[in-house]
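Session log. Operator J.P. requested a structure for one protein chain; no other inputs attached. Running the standard single-chain path with token output.
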Amino acid sequence: MWVGRWDNATPHAKLVERAEAAGGSGRILAIAVEACSDSVGTLPYVASLANAVSSLDLRITDPGGGPARRGGLSGAVQLA
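Structure written below.
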């Protein structure tokens, strides 16, 4: 499910512009469960925005405190 959402998750250009114009940097920590519909329905879009905005850092972890994943949900995700 995540991959299908990721493939269709493209942030609106004006949203990317606004995020870039805000300056500074932002950090997003998401605690996600793969089977949770809220995670599946939201995080691919947040990850896509984080990939599009160089000043945003997104980390996704599980409720058990497993290693945070850095970046988007593509095959390029790295463990922090």
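Operator note: The chain has one domain: 2-79.
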